[in-house]
Here is the input.
Amino acid sequence: MKVLVTGGAGYIGSHIVHDLCDQAHEVIILDNFSLGRRENVDPRAQLIEGDVRNMEDLNKAFGMRVEVVFHFAAWKAAGESMTNPMKFANNNICGTLSLLNAVVEHNVNYFIFSSSAAVYGSPQYLPIDEKHPKNPENYYGYTKLAIEENLEWYSKLKNIRYAALRYFNATGYDVKGRILGMENNPTNLCPVVMETACGMREKLLIFGNDYNTPDGTCIRDYIHVSDLSEAHLLAMDYIIEENKNLIVNLGTGSGNSVLEMVEAAQEAVEKKINHQIIGRRPGDPENLIASSELAFNLINWKAKHSDLKTIFKSMIPVYFKNMNKR
Ligand code: UFG
Here is the structure.
């Protein structure tokens, strides 16, 4: 298939591009390099440096007779979305709608959307399944929900088939070791842990140990990015072959606390990681765990690489390679 991947140089997008190219799909990347990294661009893909909000860039990409769109180009820092919602509205909502309009205009039928567990907000029960009420607690989560709702309308009105993949805590790096450019200015736990392990940060700050969990720190469902990538390819096959939309959670069904993550990282890097407990970060739910049964039933997907050892081992080449460069 001829596939357009927006944000194909970014953290998750670059993994999917490599796997799409491995399966001999013809890939076009549209990325503005605001967060993406050139070293993570698969040389087998065609690169358009541009933005989903720019009509000329979109026309250039769609002029290449795209058949499927994977959309990753969006902001993802939930905390920042609460202080600068305009930035998130502009890119995550306006940018995606302009992309969707181009999809309709160019008669593209298939759209794979990078959604998030943030659409649910604080859990009313665990594990969270797809029927759980959707009450985003941050504006970032709202932008993902707003696009899911638009996708439903566009699907009904314009016959687009789409997949909305609700990631839980995406982490790790390519299990095949092909992607080595680390994320710019990360705020998520695992990259911050690894930056601390390799000496780029003095210490990891742990946001609260007074939650109602066994060790007092928050629990999350960490899912390896290589597992996420596999789910995207299966999702594409599903919406094409079944001619149906697909809305599924992508997680492992079990969770780990922040302290468990630090311990696993210490074992992987074989050294102590300096950390300090500070106060809670506003808006952190204490426990988020996915039910991914639906993804298993519909696309036969299950996490394979998401044990903590594999997660941190896969991050070592990225962080320790960069440490040696400094
Ligand atoms: N944490 C720390 N110190 C840090 C960073 C994180 O203690 O420096 C803690 C957080 O308080 C939280 C846990 O580690 O308890 C995970 O935090 P992340 O920032 O890595 O991830 P979040 O769970 O806040 O959010 C992530 C994505 C969202 C997505 C969500 C779904 O960033 O986009 O997972 O579960 F919606």
In short: The first strand starts at residue 2 and ends at 6. The chain has a mean pLDDT of 96. The radius of gyration is 19 Å. Residues 2-171+222-250 form a domain with the Rossmann fold fold (CATH 3.40.50.720).
